[in-house]
Amino acid sequence: MAEHANILEDLSAALVQRSAAAQNSVVGVGLHDEEYVTGTLWQPGLIIASNQALPKWEAFNVVLPGGSVQQAAVAGRDPGTNIALLRLNEQGSITLLKPAHATTGAVVLATGSDGKGSATARLGIVNQAGPEWHSSFGGRIDRRIVLDLGLGRREEGGPVFNAAGEFIGMSTFGPRGRVLVIPAVTIERAVELLKKDGHVSRGWLGVTFQPVAIPESLQEAAGKSKGLMAMSTTEGGPAAKAGVVAGDIIVALNDTPAHRYRSILSQLGPESIGGKATLRLIRGGKIISLEATIEARPHA
Amino acid sequence: MMEIASKPEQLTLRVAVTRIEQPVQRELRFKLARLGHVMVDADEHPDIVMFTDAKRRGSGEAMLFLRRAASDVVSSLPLNASVDQLEAALSAIIAGLIVHPDDGHIDGFRQLEEAEGEHLLTPRELEVLHAISRGLQNKAIARDLDISLHTVKFHIESVYRKLGARNRTEAIAIARKRSRDQVFDL
């Protein structure tokens, strides 16, 4: 019995210690009234937070570890990876986070800010550490990490640690309150671009697509049984200028089959901006080709 | 029977569930019982009919659709809605209101979801479905799309089969959820 009690005490003591250590990495990002969300101290003077949790302001009041308040200007935002970068006036010293990969089943400690300079803590496990995925805003996230724990609205954007105290990523909410983690490696990549440009550029066609079945009579000509149909085009956008209209079904983009979102996205990287794109489409029962010039996706 | 705290005037609703998997059905039965409602068969004069988008695949969250037995108007809730949400929705629906979840809460950082292995609709079927959602009857749809009444019926049957819907309102509800999950701007 005594041994078991010690295991629990040890576990508890370790969690207390880790939670206390996490305090140096969390900040409260002030919103309306007394509300706030959590941010993570990423580099000296730089804070990352969940982009979707922040209103479109230019600066925020930030409660730093220990409780002092400073203003932080928005240095960049990327809806694609859901990362916002805030820059403090003074750099100060920070605890460097040691990045690590997530493993399914691993115990994690998700931490947040209490809005007063201390940390809050949540214990859970990695429910899923899957392959890379793309967000609805076109960003590439290196791993699909889902946590099995409950997170408060104000804790979104805080660091998630593994049992070794290493940083596996930043917490954020997926659909219906599911807790996701933006992996450390994705953060590193996005932050470098945000520091430089203030945004992450991605190619854009300006088409709202819906997956459809290609009518049987056209499947042979199209070479496939499903495609993406343009439901609408953004006025003045690349596709509209090229002559794409609602109802067109895209078959290929630059000779690459384009019946799945991922195959289109893979050709809309930052380097694609300004380049030509040949769109093969089904329109009125015939296959036609149009040429568009890819533009940068407008900043949301 | 266990006593449950309830308002004196509380109504016992008869709720029929169709095409809902057994484990989910058990959970719903339990939630309904806690609210003082009973689950009945579809032919036992239900007040409310519930169903899900049974043929759904992929990682989108499952929805529960509800309607008054006497009405075609479909409300929706997340399938994992709390007992409180379920009770609020049932009261509203019985009062003749339409209930849908707050999209602001549903959303969150979400995946660009591919339509894997789904029975996708053809452009023509989508047009027919759109006409249905505007409340058009078959004759009007035929006139609108300049196709025969027979062809309209053929398309509607195909839409029902692909969506796993049994009538117009179910088809509209399921298609609405699909387009929310699968429509993206690139």
The percent range for helix content of chain A is 10-25%
Question: What helical percentage do the residues of chain B reach?
Answer: 40-55%
Q: How confident is the prediction overall: mean pLDDT of chain B? A: 83
CATH-derived architecture of the largest domain in chain B: 3-Layer(aba) Sandwich
What low-confidence regions of chain B span 5 or more consecutive residues with pLDDT below 50? 1-8
* pLDDT < 50 runs, ≥5 residues of chain A: none
Specify Rg of chain B, calculated over alpha carbons. 18 Å
Return Rg of chain A in Å: 23 Å
Q: Tell me about the biggest sheet of chain B? A: 5 strands, mixed
Beta-strand segment tally of chain B? 6
CATH class of the largest domain in chain B: Alpha Beta
CATH class of the largest domain in chain A, please?
Mainly Beta
Strand content of chain B: 5-15%
Task: Indicate how many domains the architecture of chain B comprises.
Answer: 2
Order of helices and strands of chain A: HEEEEEEEEEEEEEEHEEHEHEEHEEE
